[in-house]
Design goal:
The protein is mostly beta strands. It is built from no helices and 22 strands. It folds into two domains: about 70 residues, Immunoglobulin-like, CATH 2.60.40.10; about 80 residues, Immunoglobulin-like (Sandwich), CATH 2.60.40. It has a four-stranded antiparallel beta sheet with strand order 5-6-10-9, with no helix packed on it. It has a four-stranded antiparallel beta sheet with strand order 8-7-11-12, with no helix packed on it. The protein is rod-shaped and about 90 Å long.
């Protein structure tokens, strides 16, 4: 209880409470409210796209007091919250899955899944001939639907959230690496040189 007076009682609403009547018990007996107390249950309407390490704006209702935000089950750092939005940073462990926001009123889960935007930070080696194996490094790379070099599709040998291993195809040209995932499209900053 937060405060008690002769004609009023102040109390904090505990987590997990649902909408209903309020009762107060004293040595003289128990009183039940004639009005219904409504718990402000959080909801998520939409969220912005972002890569690992970038902020995402989650829009909805009753989001103030957010104590936990997750992306695909991975806990995120909350930067700010208000009644209709929460801003949180996509964690390194984020995978495809729902966005959840926990508040004193309950837990909201998004109807659609969040997938981090892909980012290519580097690749090694920087040059090679047909048949060479190249490792692309970055974030949000898992589930690659298409990987290409200078616009030509390449064979993916392995992929994870932080790496994709490819084989340089025959008749390949020098150019930028491109990765398409459910989260979007990423291009390398520097071109790969076909020797």
């Amino acid at each position: 209880m937060a405060s008690v007076g002769a004609d009023s009682v102040g109390a904090l609403v505990p987590a997990g409470v649902t909408t209903g009547t309020v009762s107060v018990t004293t040595p003289a007996g128990t009183a039940v409210s004639s009005q219904i107390f409504t718990v402000a249950v959080p909801t998520i309407k939409r969220f912005t796209a972002a890569a690992v390490g970038q902020p995402v704006t989650i829009s909805g209702a009753n989001l103030s007091g957010a104590t936990l935000v997750t992306f695909g089950g991975a806990a995120a750092t909350v930067l700010s919250d208000s009644a209709d939005s929460v801003i949180a940073v996509v964690p390194a462990a984020a995978t495809t899955g729902p966005v959840t926001v926990r508040t004193p009123g309950g837990v909201a889960s998004s109807a659609r899944s969040f997938t981090p935007r892909p980012v290519i930070t580097s690749f090694d080696p920087q040059a090679g001939s047909a048949g060479a194996t190249v490792t692309l490094n970055g974030t949000g790379l898992s589930g690659a639907k298409r990987v290409s070099l200078a616009g030509r599709r390449v064979r993916v040998l392995a992929d994870s959230a932080t790496q994709i291993v490819i084989s340089v195809p025959r008749r390949a040209s020098s150019g930028l690496m491109e990765v398409q995932t459910p989260g979007g499209v990423a291009f390398s900053t520097n071109p790969f040189t076909v020797a």
